[in-house]
């Protein structure tokens, strides 16, 4: 295997086990999507597999095959919900790349013409704002 082993004692592992809360947007047998608590743009969300892997380097291709259609579904929903001009999908692998949480995740970030992203892992967003933003995306998914 490439890189270090998966350690289940990470924040997203805790979210998956229900040990810490999240603003959930979407869940199926293999996948969970929820709001990023330090959004780089309103509507910034994360899509994670339930199967353990540290990042894309050690992920099972079969897990990725189920994950990417959900990333697409959430990218489309976030674009509509936030009337974005575009969507940035980011995925970091190992500290040198900027990874800070060691459970595989894809960032889905609404983008607007001429508007720069806020810093990665910058400022905590208000809980009420995150809840309202999750509801916006859930509303689109429900349509
Ligand atoms: P990365 O590992 O790709 O660098 O980023 C981890 C992301 O997780 C960051 O964007 C950060 O804001 C987000 N994050 C860190 N801790 C938590 C948390 O407890 N809950 C949620 N929902 N997001 C988190």
Keywords:
HIT family, subunit A, globular, 5 strands, five-stranded antiparallel β-sheet, alpha+beta, binds guanosine-5'-monophosphate
Describe the structure.
The chain has helices at 11-16, 61-81, 127-141, and strands spanning 24-27, 31-35, 45-49, 86-90, 106-111. It has one domain (11-141): HIT family, subunit A (2-Layer Sandwich), CATH 3.30.428.10. Strand 1 and strand 2 form a beta hairpin. The chain has a 5-stranded antiparallel sheet. It has 3 helices and 5 strands, in the order αβββαββα. With 143 residues, it is an alpha+beta fold. The protein binds guanosine-5'-monophosphate. Guanosine-5'-monophosphate (5GP) binds next to strand 2.
Order of helices and strands: HEEEHEEH
Bound molecules: guanosine-5'-monophosphate
Strand content: 15-25%
What fraction, in percent, of the residue positions are helical?
Answer: 25-40%
What is the highest CATH level, the class? Alpha Beta
What Rg is obtained from the alpha carbons, in whole angstroms?
Answer: 14 Å
User: Do you know the CATH architecture?
Assistant: 2-Layer Sandwich
CATH topology tier name: HIT family, subunit A
Please give the count of helices: 3
What's the number of structural domains? 1
Unreliable runs: none
Report how far apart the termini are. 42 Å
Q: Residue-averaged pLDDT, rounded? A: 96
> What is the count of β-strands?
5
Q: How would you sum up the global shape?
A: globular
CATH homologous superfamily - what is it?
A: HIT-like
State the secondary-structure class. Answer: alpha+beta
Strand order of the largest sheet: 1-2-3-5-4
Main sheet attributes: strand count, strand direction, barrel closure: 5 strands, antiparallel
